[in-house]
Amino acid sequence: xxxxxxxxxxxxxxxxxxxxxxxxxxxxxxxxxxxxxxxxxxxxxxxxxxxxxxxxxxxxxxxxxxxxxxxxxxxxxxxxxxxxxxxxxxxxxxxxxxxxxxxxxxxxxxxxxxxxxxxxxxxxxxxxxxxxxxxxxxxxxxxxxxxxxx
Length: 150
Known about the structure:
Distance between the termini: 55 Å
Number of helices: 5
CATH superfamily: Ferritin, core subunit, four-helix bundle
Largest sheet: none
Radius of gyration: 16 Å
Shape: elongated
CATH architecture: Up-down Bundle
C-alpha cells in the first residue's frame, strides 16, 4: 500500500509537471517568431495536454485522486523564467537549449517513476510511451539547435 501511495504521488507530480509544460509551450507559441518553432511548440503543448489526460485516467484507475493543487509546483518554473528572458533577447539558440533542458528534466522525472517497484503494466506502458515521445522531441530540437552553430 505504501508503494501505491508513492506511485500515485509521483504520478500526480507528473500530472502537475505536464500541465505546467503545456502552459509553457503555448506561451512559447505566442512569443516565438519562427514558424517551424511555433509548430513544434504547439505540438508539444498538445502532447502534454494529452499526457495529462492519460495520467489523470491512470491515476483514477489506480483508485487515486488527481491532484492539481495550486500550491504544488514542479521544477519547471525556473526553466520558464529562463525561457522568458531568452525570448526577450530573441536568443533562439539558447532558447532551444533551455527547452531541451526542460525536456531532459521531464524525462528524468518519468524515469524516476518508471524505476518504482510494482508499477502496474498499463501505467508502465503509458509512461514509457510518453517519455519516448518527449525524448524524440528533444532529439528533434537538438538537431534544430545545431543548425545555428556557425
